Here is the input.
Amino acid sequence: MYQLYGFIGSASLAPRMVLEELKLPYQFIRLDAEKGDHRNPAYLRLNPNGRVPTLVEGDEVLYEAAAICLHLCDRHPTSHLVPALGQPARGQLYKWLMFLTNTLQPALIAYFYPDRLSTDPADAPAIKARAEQNAQQIYQQLAEHLDSNGPYLLGAEFSVADLYLLMLIRWGRWFAAPPVSSHPSLQRLVELLSQREAVKATFAAEGIPAPYCLLPTG
Here is the structure.
Protein backbone atom coordinates (compact mmCIF):
# COMPACT_ATOMS: atom_id res chain seq x y z
CA MET A 1 0.00 0.00 0.00
CA TYR A 2 1.15 3.51 -0.76
CA GLN A 3 1.75 6.00 2.03
CA LEU A 4 1.46 9.66 1.13
CA TYR A 5 2.82 12.21 3.57
CA GLY A 6 1.45 15.73 3.34
CA PHE A 7 -0.24 18.78 4.77
CA ILE A 8 -3.91 19.53 4.17
CA GLY A 9 -4.34 21.53 0.95
CA SER A 10 -0.62 21.54 0.22
CA ALA A 11 1.43 20.16 -2.67
CA SER A 12 0.36 16.68 -1.58
CA LEU A 13 -3.09 17.50 -2.93
CA ALA A 14 -2.28 16.67 -6.57
CA PRO A 15 -0.75 13.24 -5.82
CA ARG A 16 -3.69 12.46 -3.57
CA MET A 17 -6.13 13.24 -6.38
CA VAL A 18 -4.12 10.96 -8.65
CA LEU A 19 -4.30 8.13 -6.11
CA GLU A 20 -8.05 8.63 -5.95
CA GLU A 21 -8.42 8.78 -9.73
CA LEU A 22 -6.51 5.50 -10.08
CA LYS A 23 -8.52 3.94 -7.24
CA LEU A 24 -5.33 2.84 -5.50
CA PRO A 25 -5.24 1.83 -1.85
CA TYR A 26 -3.20 4.32 0.15
CA GLN A 27 -2.73 5.81 3.58
CA PHE A 28 -2.56 9.57 3.92
CA ILE A 29 -0.22 10.50 6.74
CA ARG A 30 -1.09 14.03 7.74
CA LEU A 31 1.80 16.11 9.01
CA ASP A 32 1.27 19.12 11.25
CA ALA A 33 3.34 22.06 10.04
CA GLU A 34 2.77 24.07 13.20
CA LYS A 35 4.16 21.23 15.29
CA GLY A 36 7.10 20.87 12.91
CA ASP A 37 6.35 17.28 11.95
CA HIS A 38 8.14 17.82 8.63
CA ARG A 39 11.36 18.60 10.50
CA ASN A 40 11.31 15.51 12.69
CA PRO A 41 14.34 13.21 12.18
CA ALA A 42 12.10 10.32 11.14
CA TYR A 43 10.54 12.35 8.35
CA LEU A 44 13.84 13.91 7.29
CA ARG A 45 15.17 10.40 6.70
CA LEU A 46 12.45 10.07 4.06
CA ASN A 47 12.67 13.58 2.67
CA PRO A 48 15.83 15.48 3.64
CA ASN A 49 14.28 18.70 2.31
CA GLY A 50 11.68 18.68 5.07
CA ARG A 51 8.88 19.40 2.62
CA VAL A 52 5.81 17.63 1.31
CA PRO A 53 4.72 15.47 -0.34
CA THR A 54 6.58 12.20 0.08
CA LEU A 55 5.35 8.89 -1.29
CA VAL A 56 6.45 5.60 0.25
CA GLU A 57 5.83 2.12 -1.13
CA GLY A 58 7.81 -0.55 0.66
CA ASP A 59 11.46 0.48 0.43
CA GLU A 60 10.82 2.98 -2.35
CA VAL A 61 10.67 6.64 -1.35
CA LEU A 62 9.83 9.44 -3.75
CA TYR A 63 9.35 13.16 -3.27
CA GLU A 64 8.48 16.13 -5.53
CA ALA A 65 4.77 16.32 -6.32
CA ALA A 66 5.02 16.23 -10.11
CA ALA A 67 7.43 13.28 -10.00
CA ILE A 68 5.03 11.39 -7.73
CA CYS A 69 2.12 12.10 -10.07
CA LEU A 70 4.00 10.87 -13.13
CA HIS A 71 5.38 7.84 -11.29
CA LEU A 72 1.93 6.76 -10.18
CA CYS A 73 0.62 7.05 -13.73
CA ASP A 74 3.57 5.09 -15.14
CA ARG A 75 3.40 2.52 -12.35
CA HIS A 76 -0.18 1.80 -13.39
CA PRO A 77 0.02 1.79 -17.20
CA THR A 78 -3.70 1.44 -17.74
CA SER A 79 -4.04 4.94 -16.30
CA HIS A 80 -6.43 7.28 -18.07
CA LEU A 81 -4.42 10.26 -16.83
CA VAL A 82 -1.60 10.27 -19.38
CA PRO A 83 -1.46 9.87 -23.17
CA ALA A 84 0.37 6.83 -24.51
CA LEU A 85 4.15 6.90 -24.70
CA GLY A 86 5.43 8.21 -28.00
CA GLN A 87 2.25 10.12 -28.80
CA PRO A 88 2.56 13.89 -29.44
CA ALA A 89 0.08 14.51 -26.63
CA ARG A 90 2.50 12.86 -24.21
CA GLY A 91 5.07 15.53 -25.01
CA GLN A 92 2.45 18.22 -24.48
CA LEU A 93 1.67 16.69 -21.10
CA TYR A 94 5.32 16.89 -20.09
CA LYS A 95 5.45 20.49 -21.30
CA TRP A 96 2.47 21.63 -19.29
CA LEU A 97 3.36 19.74 -16.14
CA MET A 98 6.90 21.14 -16.19
CA PHE A 99 5.54 24.60 -16.93
CA LEU A 100 3.33 24.39 -13.87
CA THR A 101 6.11 23.16 -11.59
CA ASN A 102 8.89 25.37 -12.95
CA THR A 103 7.02 28.59 -13.74
CA LEU A 104 3.73 28.96 -11.88
CA GLN A 105 4.54 27.08 -8.70
CA PRO A 106 7.74 29.07 -7.92
CA ALA A 107 5.78 32.32 -8.20
CA LEU A 108 3.21 31.01 -5.75
CA ILE A 109 5.90 29.72 -3.39
CA ALA A 110 7.50 33.17 -3.39
CA TYR A 111 4.13 34.67 -2.44
CA PHE A 112 3.60 32.33 0.50
CA TYR A 113 7.23 32.16 1.64
CA PRO A 114 8.88 35.54 0.99
CA ASP A 115 11.40 34.74 3.74
CA ARG A 116 13.02 32.26 1.36
CA LEU A 117 14.06 35.17 -0.87
CA SER A 118 15.17 37.69 1.76
CA THR A 119 16.24 37.64 5.38
CA ASP A 120 14.85 41.15 5.88
CA PRO A 121 11.17 41.04 6.94
CA ALA A 122 10.74 44.53 5.50
CA ASP A 123 11.18 43.05 2.02
CA ALA A 124 8.23 40.68 2.40
CA PRO A 125 5.45 42.99 1.11
CA ALA A 126 7.36 43.84 -2.07
CA ILE A 127 8.25 40.20 -2.68
CA LYS A 128 4.64 39.11 -2.22
CA ALA A 129 3.34 41.86 -4.49
CA ARG A 130 5.78 40.99 -7.25
CA ALA A 131 5.09 37.26 -6.85
CA GLU A 132 1.35 37.86 -7.14
CA GLN A 133 1.89 39.93 -10.27
CA ASN A 134 4.06 37.20 -11.81
CA ALA A 135 1.54 34.49 -10.94
CA GLN A 136 -1.33 36.50 -12.40
CA GLN A 137 0.53 36.84 -15.69
CA ILE A 138 1.02 33.08 -15.78
CA TYR A 139 -2.64 32.42 -14.98
CA GLN A 140 -3.48 34.74 -17.87
CA GLN A 141 -1.24 32.72 -20.20
CA LEU A 142 -2.88 29.49 -19.10
CA ALA A 143 -6.34 31.00 -19.53
CA GLU A 144 -5.51 32.12 -23.05
CA HIS A 145 -4.36 28.61 -23.91
CA LEU A 146 -7.57 27.11 -22.54
CA ASP A 147 -9.64 29.71 -24.38
CA SER A 148 -8.20 28.49 -27.67
CA ASN A 149 -7.49 24.84 -26.92
CA GLY A 150 -9.57 23.81 -23.90
CA PRO A 151 -11.44 22.83 -21.95
CA TYR A 152 -8.39 20.89 -20.65
CA LEU A 153 -4.70 21.61 -21.04
CA LEU A 154 -4.52 18.82 -23.65
CA GLY A 155 -7.67 19.97 -25.39
CA ALA A 156 -10.55 17.52 -25.14
CA GLU A 157 -8.40 15.05 -23.19
CA PHE A 158 -8.37 15.20 -19.39
CA SER A 159 -4.95 14.48 -17.87
CA VAL A 160 -2.89 14.55 -14.71
CA ALA A 161 -1.73 18.05 -15.66
CA ASP A 162 -5.26 19.34 -15.11
CA LEU A 163 -5.28 17.99 -11.56
CA TYR A 164 -1.98 19.72 -10.91
CA LEU A 165 -3.32 22.97 -12.30
CA LEU A 166 -6.42 22.67 -10.12
CA MET A 167 -4.16 22.57 -7.07
CA LEU A 168 -2.29 25.68 -8.20
CA ILE A 169 -5.45 27.57 -9.11
CA ARG A 170 -6.66 26.87 -5.59
CA TRP A 171 -3.49 28.38 -4.12
CA GLY A 172 -4.33 31.63 -5.91
CA ARG A 173 -7.54 32.01 -3.91
CA TRP A 174 -5.64 34.35 -1.55
CA PHE A 175 -4.97 36.90 -4.27
CA ALA A 176 -6.92 40.14 -4.50
CA ALA A 177 -8.32 38.79 -7.79
CA PRO A 178 -8.49 34.98 -7.49
CA PRO A 179 -7.74 33.36 -10.87
CA VAL A 180 -10.94 31.34 -10.84
CA SER A 181 -12.90 34.60 -10.61
CA SER A 182 -10.83 36.46 -13.20
CA HIS A 183 -10.65 33.91 -16.01
CA PRO A 184 -13.77 32.08 -17.28
CA SER A 185 -11.70 29.31 -18.86
CA LEU A 186 -9.98 28.58 -15.54
CA GLN A 187 -13.37 28.67 -13.82
CA ARG A 188 -14.70 26.22 -16.41
CA LEU A 189 -11.78 23.87 -15.80
CA VAL A 190 -12.36 24.00 -12.05
CA GLU A 191 -16.05 23.28 -12.56
CA LEU A 192 -15.32 20.27 -14.76
CA LEU A 193 -12.77 18.83 -12.36
CA SER A 194 -14.97 19.52 -9.34
CA GLN A 195 -17.53 17.13 -10.81
CA ARG A 196 -15.08 14.23 -10.79
CA GLU A 197 -15.67 11.69 -8.05
CA ALA A 198 -11.96 11.41 -7.27
CA VAL A 199 -11.65 15.16 -6.83
CA LYS A 200 -14.71 15.33 -4.61
CA ALA A 201 -13.43 12.40 -2.55
CA THR A 202 -10.02 14.03 -2.09
CA PHE A 203 -11.39 17.34 -0.91
CA ALA A 204 -13.92 15.63 1.35
CA ALA A 205 -11.14 13.58 2.92
CA GLU A 206 -9.16 16.77 3.55
CA GLY A 207 -12.16 18.55 5.00
CA ILE A 208 -12.13 21.24 2.29
CA PRO A 209 -15.65 22.31 1.26
CA ALA A 210 -16.67 23.49 -2.19
CA PRO A 211 -16.07 25.84 -3.88
CA TYR A 212 -12.52 24.53 -3.70
CA CYS A 213 -10.74 27.47 -5.31
CA LEU A 214 -12.28 30.38 -3.42
CA LEU A 215 -11.95 31.44 0.17
CA PRO A 216 -14.95 30.44 2.29
CA THR A 217 -17.47 33.23 2.70
CA GLY A 218 -18.84 32.08 6.03
In short: The mean pLDDT is 95.
